[in-house]
Amino acid sequence: xxxxxxxxxxxxxxxxxxxxxxxxxxxxxxxxxxxxxxxxxxxxxxxxxxxxxxxxxxxxxxxxxxxxxxxxxxxxxxxxxxxxxxxxxxxxxxxxxxxxxxxxxxxxxxxxxxxxxxxxxxxxxxxxxxxxxxxxxxxxxxxxxxxxxxxxxxxxxxxxxxxxxxxxxxxxxxxxxxxxxxxxxxxxxxxxxxxxxxxxxxxxxxxxxxxxxxxxxxxxxxxxxxxxxxxxxxxxxxxxxxxxxxxxxxxxxxxxxxxxxxxxxxxxxxxxxxxxxxxxxxxxxxxxxxxxxxxxxxxxxxxxxxxxxxxxxxxxxxxxxxxxxxxxxxxxxxxxxxxxxxxxxxxxxxxxxxxxxxxxxxxxxxxxxxxxxxxxxxxxxxxxxxxxxxxxxxxxxxxxxxxxxxxxxxxxxxxxxxxxxxxxxxxxxxxxxxxxxxxxxxxxxxxxxxxxxxxxxxxxxxxxxxxxxxxxxxxxxxxxxxx
Length: 483
Known about the structure:
alpha+beta
């Protein structure tokens, strides 16, 4: 830790003397960056922001602003652990490309051939039984998001996993695809992913406060997440590694990862070259929803495409690659310019974080090329007025009435919601995510004070709870009672 702080101090001293070089060759001083960050955070209502800039392959600037805990007024630091969300995917892709370079994994071999039993025999993939197209899916397709899978099966009306198009023919972002590749990697290596990532990526790259699962050493400095209204949603303390999004890291650590990516540290030259080469041209008008049928030529000029784990585009300054990270109360962005060996990392603990990407990228790097519109990142000052919070009237229920709702609901093994009793109210926990308190309301349902979701319950003929219905974003999602 001391060494890391000394390195950052040296980098800061360099910046104070020379400033940070932008893409157009002009320079910006740390004071100017600080002023820009403060203005954008205040305007967009972002409680905590961390920034790192790499110039010529050197970490030339890293700073953190605002709070990691607004209630306790605890400041965010460059060593505060933050939820990386989908930035996890590029770290996982790095491991995969190491295995490819070592000859342990072939990008073009159908992944089912690496498994000890047929893919549909795994409970998580039973939905694919009868669809032989799964036998055409390769690691290359999974890393380039061309498998045909949805982002997540729970988005589907029936919450079942399905293949939407001929694998390899078009881009459609998919966390499901990354999770399948995790199963393959663990089968090939016979090792759990959390250990593989620690030994092959995090430790060699000096990412000492990064992990796919929660560590007790993170307890002293971590960032709470906050939604668009400033309500705390906590930080996910996962105990199960997920290649698609369970990584926690710091802005300092992930900046080291960006440096290593530029250098190809630990990768063969061929593996790095493949990772950052176009695998599929992107012609969709937007990244989400993934199966939107609108096409557009608006990104043809920047040759928008996807590599292996990374999005790619071209600028007057050469090739660039990018990755976003989006989770409840966490918004992160990383972009690297290959020829200039320049990168910028933005990490926020706010649902409003995406609204300041444009201002930061343009203000710090003079980056006007990143495809933020395609990714759906609207600047804060162009967003429609925020709708008012829903108002619920809390009522009292006795312990006996509350206890009848206690149990597990969902569609195992994919989605499990656990309802518990916490004194005079309930709690809900999705898989290994943080618990949320649920309070009874006058209409007969239960609401969370930190979210807009409403939960109601159906009773069977004997008066027992048989189903829970989640009412969210205009959808009614039934979840059967498991036990």
